[in-house]
From TrEMBL:
One term of GO molecular function: ATP-dependent protein folding chaperone
Residue intervals passing through the bilayer: none
GO annotations of cellular component type: cytoplasm
Gene3D superfamilies cross-referenced by the UniProt entry: GroEL, GroEL-like equatorial domain, TCP-1-like chaperonin intermediate domain
Main location group: cytoplasm
Pfam family, one: Cpn60_TCP1
Name of the protein: CCT-theta
Keyword Transit peptide recorded: no
Length: 545
């Protein structure tokens, strides 16, 4: 605000240097504009034909992805209103793990329509009340659209899992969804516990190894560690495992202290006793039946020498989390210091082997029997960015699996649901009296964004497709959606494209909430940060919570 601030009015009440925006024009429309900008970014990467974005964050890390959650996380969104949308997207990512793009794009669309209503002369509170009625009606209709018989599903059945997961993965990696889905479904089914509600996303790991192609990827029951075994023993089968957190080293036996040594013999004996002590410890471990030692820290030279002598395989896992997962996989109990382990504390592995994949040495720890331990998807790809993007697709797949384990109801995909919602909510708006009927009608129109965007991203004629979708739905076929490949409208049950009911529900709910939150703002008061802001920092009071 380049001009000199007057010293009367609200300015005189606040400290010097405050920014104060109020009224429709300054606050509401500016906020809506910022949100529209954000949703324009995410919108073009919605759906299977979505474009990728190249985001370079402040640490110079490069992201090439069409995963909206990643994009908005890496963009440093500064505008406080646009931040609300980002938070809605994040909430969706945390809750369901997929559908962040729908949330942000839909909220942006709702706000854009709200802007038209405001210019027509509606008051924001009427729009909010209309939108609230709209979202309630939407939830009602969404429940009616659920496919019959989809409530009960067998989470161990690969076909059923894939049919529900396909849409989520296809929107990230179009054209490769069948292969990826079968990988993810295998991995998830292996680790799914007796009660599927307790499925833990963390139990499906992804190991990214450069080289090869997607078709060289596979699923391993157990873990893949990106490091070589320390000693010379490279593979071992059906063995007991001892896990030491503190590292296998002589320092475990040394106490700090000053030793006065008078003669050479004493010196030799001193060294010998240390050696004997280490040998004794390693022998104790070997005697307990363990064949593999896993260390959480460095492995000393001398200790390694004795491990070799007793034919023990030594692995080093430096990350705490990896170590915990290793214990989960093998059922071992991690011990703090080197000592003879109890038989109960030992874990079991079917095989540990060092394999060379694409020039990188990896240790594969397999555990077939231990029911729901951990499985790893080994991804192969030609560049880092491709691998990162594949990982995101798998992440979405796993999260979708978790969501379907909780609630397996499905609704038609490929924008069939959205068109039906638009039609039904529009009808509902005609029954309303009062000014909020306009808002409900706009709410219904906002759903058209999905088929419109999907067809535009696929390079099809959006208007034609939307009108033919409406025509089909009006004649009672509620399952007609867009077939991307042929550019026509088809019944989704023949194409087998389904979306999870729960994903849609939360995405639309969060979007409507976010839009209403933005519309409720009518004044923005920014305080001046102490000591003046450095460039590129957020003004105080605007930082994330």
């Amino acid at each position: 605000m380049g001009f000199q601030l007057p010293s009367h009015g609200i300015q005189s009440m606040l400290k010097e240097g405050h920014k104060h925006l109020s009224g429709l024009d300054e606050a509401v429309l500016k906020n809506i504009d910022a949100c529209k900008q954000l949703s324009t970014i995410t919108r073009t990467s919605l759906g299977p034909n979505g474009m990728n974005k190249m985001v370079i964050n402040h640490l110079d890390k490069l992201f090439i992805t069409n995963d909206a959650a990643t994009i908005v996380n890496e963009l440093e969104v500064q505008h406080p209103a646009a931040k609300i949308l980002v938070l809605a997207g994040k909430a969706q990512q945390e809750e369901i793990g997929d559908g962040a793009n729908l949330t942000i794009s839909f909220a942006g669309e709702l706000l854009q329509n709200a802007e038209e209503l405001i210019r027509m002369g509606l008051h924001p509170s009427e729009i909010i009340s209309g939108y609230t009625k709209g979202i309630n009606k939407t939830i009602e209709v969404l429940n009616e659209l659920v496919e019959k018989g989809s409530e009960n599903m067998d989470v161990q059945n690969k076909e059923q899992v894939i049919s529900r997961m396909k849409a989520a993965v296809a929107s990230k990696q179009f054209g490769q969804e069948d292969f990826i889905c079968s990988l993810v479904a295998d991995a998830c089914i292996q680790v799914c516990p007796k009660n599927p509600q307790n499925f833990n996303v963390d139990n499906v790991r992804v190991a990214k190894l450069l080289g090869g192609g997607l078709h060289n990827s596979s699923v391993v029951r157990g873990m893949v560690l990106k490091s070589d075994a320390v000693g010379s023993i490279k593979r071992i089968e059906k063995a007991k495992v001892a896990v030491f957190v503190g590292g296998v080293d002589t320092s475990a036996t040394e106490t700090k202290g000053t030793v006065l040594i008078h003669t050479a013999e004493e010196l030799q004996n001193y060294a010998k006793t240390e050696e004997a002590k280490v040998e004794e410890l390693i022998k104790a471990v070997a005697d307990s039946g363990a064949k593999v030692i896993v260390s959480g820290a460095a492995v000393g030279e001398m200790a390694l020498h004795f491990c070799e002598r007793y034919k023990l395989m030594v692995l080093k896992i430096s990350s705490k989390f990896e170590l915990r997962r290793f214990c989960r996989t093998t059922g071992a109990v991690a011990m703090l210091k080197l000592s003879q382990p109890n038989p109960d504390d030992l874990g079991h592995v079917d095989s540990v082997s060092v394999e060379e994949i694409g020039g990188a040495r990896v240790t594969v720890v397999k555990n077939e029997e231990g029911g729901n331990s951990i499985s790893t998807v080994v991804l192969r790809g030609s560049t880092d960015s491709i691998l990162d993007d594949l990982e995101r697709a798998i992440d979405d797949g796993v999260n979708t699996y978790k969501a379907m384990a909780r609630d397996s109801r499905i609704v038609p995909g490929a924008a069939a649901t959205e068109i039906e919602l638009a039609r039904r909510v529009k009808e509902f708006s005609f029954k309303e009296t009062g000014l909020d009927q306009y808002a409900i009608a706009k709410f219904a129109e906002s759903f058209e964004m999905v088929p419109k965007t999907l067809s535009e991203n696929a390079g099809l004629n959006a208007m034609e497709i939307i009108s033919s979708l409406y025509a089909e739905h009006a004649s009672g076929t509620t399952r007609v959606g867009i077939d991307m490949e042929e550019g026509t409208c088809k019944d989704v049950s023949t194409m087998n494209i389904w979306d999870l009911h729960i994903t849609k529900l939360f995405a639309l709910k969060y979007a409507a909430d976010a839009a209403c939150t933005v519309l409720r703002v009518d004044q923005i008061i920014m305080s001046k940060p102490a000591g003046g802001p450095r460039r590129g920092q957020q003004p105080a009071g605007m930082d994330e919570d």
